[in-house]
Structure formats: C-alpha cells, structure tokens
Design goal:
single chain; alpha/beta; seven-stranded mixed β-sheet; 42% helix; globular
Length: 366
C-alpha cells in the first residue's frame, strides 16, 4: 500500500477517565470527524485516525481509515508515526491531534494540499514554534529527525535537521484556534456555523459560555480595558490591538513553556504577586487593572511548582472549584469566581486563538 497524494493523520488517544476529561474526549472525537470530512473535501487522498479508542470512530465515511494502537503497548510518538509513514507509504503526510484547529474548513485544508503537491521539498504548518498541524514532503524526511517527543516541535526539526523549506499558513482564527480545554470548548458555543456534533458537545459547558459572553461587549467598547495574561504571542497581541475596540493590558510570560529545555525554571511576575498577597487579593488587584481578566493558569501553576492532574485543570477551567483536588489550584479557582470582575481561566489557546474567536463573535453579534 502506498499513498503518493496528501494524507492527513489524526492522533486521538490518552484522553483520561475523569468527568471533564471524558467531556473533552467527546469534543475531540467530534472535532476529528469534522476535520476528516473537511480534509477529504479539500483533496486529501485519505485520512488515517490513530487511536486507542476505535469505537469512537465507528461509521466514518469512505476514505477514513482507523489504525488502532496495540493493546497494552507503550505509546512513543516518534516510533508510532514513523511506523505509520512506512506502513502506508506516505509520500505527503500531514499530522495533527484530534482537537487541533477545529475551525479549519475545506478551504484552509486545500491550502495544505496545494503546498504538499509542490515538487520541491517543503513543510507547511499553522505555527512554526508550536505546531498543531504540520504536513511535509517527502514523507521520508521524517526518518532524518533525531528525536521527536511531540508534534509541536516538528516544524523546527523538519527545517533544521531535514532541510525542508518552511511554509506558514496565514494567522487567522481558524489556523490559531485549538481545542485543548473546556474553556476552548465553551468558546465554540459562541461560534456560528460549527459542526453540529461539536456544537452539541459545546452545549454541555453552556454555563461557561455564558461567562464568556460577558466579555463580548467589552471587546467592542472603547472605554473598556481587558487584562490578558499568560503565554501570549506577538501575533495575538497585534491582532487584539488591531481588531478590538477596547484597551488591552498584556502580561506575556513563559512563551514556549511546553517546549522549554530540560532544567528550565518557569518564573512569572503575576506568580510572584500571587505568592505575596494570596489568591483573593490577587484577583482584587487584577480587577483594578481592567474590566475583565483572561488568565492562562498554566504559567501560574508552573511558577508555583504545581503539578495538578489534567482533570483538575479542566475542572478549574470550568469553575468547578469544589471538584479540584489540588488545594492551591482549588483556592485560586474559587477566588477567580468571586473576583470583582469576570475572570476566565484557561490554557494557551485561550490567550491566542480563543481570544480571536471571541472577538469575531463580539463583532458579529454587536
């Protein structure tokens, strides 16, 4: 078996058993199914879903193959993808996670196909420094990479170790929004025209969507000010400065945290403030800086040396502080809900593509 034309590989697995984790697993399955249909419509020859939960992808359309992880086996990303490229003879693979770029439609996937059908060696990605979607040609270039612990690093490795030329997709809401956390899912509750199955899962976090809706008028108000803190990139900052009416007070810290070298010690200005004044006064102070706060809590966690479970993080994003087991994160979550201004907790996507999607919704609904 061999595929000479572009093939999309979607990884879905390791989703967890907690209540919030299961919610996100359902959302990611719905997103993966929608992405598979869009990719096939855009001209991908096939879609391969790599999963440890084959039942989740029953009834997929023709052109979608389900490749099941061996039971009880140890998952190593580089080995699994390498075997997949060799087994299916992928000449022009593109890879993504099941929650990646869920707003990407057939038109955007067609741009990926166009680049992968070029004759010269190249790769195409949505984000060079922390990729959610990466395709390349030739597929054999993957064998020249020394170590690939995760998909985020693929663009840099394909350039530096395989010598492929980079092509970066335009930075739009569709290419930058990622479905990583319940906050991201709640954002989708405000986006028009999303896949019906995904919209149905988003209804399960409607209470959080209502909290997000409180931010929309601020984005269109010249007299309002929004506080944004976390791993905010320059592109997201520029977008907010250009596309929102409100003033934006930005605290950008620990960019590249997920791919930081071993031994890196995260440090955060807001983390120091939190340590000095405690969670309750921390949000009172932030409330004096703006009319609402969007906070990437993963930076605070890293600064404090916290290692909450994924379930704890998801429950914190939902505002379910009573279900958060990690005591410091539980107190932080409770204090956020009791803050004098609306506070939204989330991860990296919330302070990048999530804010872009919120702003789109604000102006559409104005």
């Amino acid at each position: 078996m061999g595929y000479e034309q572009p093939v999309l590989v979607i990884f879905h697995g390791g989703t967890g058993e907690g209540q919030a984790e299961r919610l996100m697993a359902r959302a990611r399955v719905a997103a993966a199914r929608a992405s598979a249909r869009a990719a096939l419509d855009a001209g991908f020859e096939a879609v391969i879903v790599v999963t440890d939960d084959p039942g989740a992808f029953d009834g997929c359309p023709a052109g979608v193959l389900v490749d099941v992880d061996p039971p009880g086996g140890r998952f190593v990303y580089q080995e699994r993808l390498g075997r997949l490229i060799e087994r299916y003879g992928l000449e022009r693979p593109a890879v993504m996670g099941s929650g990646s770029v869920p707003l990407l439609g057939a038109d955007e996937f067609a741009l990926v196909v166009e680049q992968l059908q070029a004759r010269d060696a190249r790769f195409v990605t949505n984000n060079f420094f922390s990729a959610d979607l990466t395709g390349w040609t030739p597929g054999s270039a993957f064998g020249r990479l020394s170590r690939v612990p995760r998909d985020n690093l693929l663009p840099r490795l394909l350039r530096d170790e395989a010598g492929l030329a980079p092509v970066i997709l335009p930075r739009t809401t569709a290419t930058q929004f990622d479905l990583d956390t319940p906050t991201d899912l709640a954002v989708l509750g405000l986006v028009r025209g999303i896949d019906p199955a995904l919209a149905l899962v988003a209804e399960e976090v409607s209470a959080l969507t209502v909290r997000l809706r409180a931010l929309l008028p601020l984005l269109c108000d010249r007299s309002a000010e929004l506080v944004v803190a976390g791993r905010v990139g320059s592109q997201a900052w520029q977008y907010l400065e250009r596309e929102t009416a409100c003033r934006v007070r930005m605290f950008s810290e620990e960019r590249g945290l997920a791919t930081a070298p071993a031994g890196h010690r995260p440090r955060s200005l807001l983390g120091f403030l939190l340590e000095e004044v405690g969670a309750e006064r921390f949000f009172q102070r932030l409330g004096e800086l703006g009319d609402a706060v969007v906070l990437d809590t993963r930076v605070i966690e890293a600064h404090l040396g916290l290692e909450p479970t994924r379930e704890d993080r998801f429950e914190s994003d939902l505002g379910a502080w009573e279900r958060v087991g990690e005591p410091v994160l539980r107190r932080l979550t409770k204090a956020a809900l009791e803050a004098p201004v609306p506070v939204i907790l989330g991860g990296h996507s919330m302070v990048s593509g999530g804010l872009m999607a919120l702003n789109d919704a604000a102006w559409e609904g104005r």
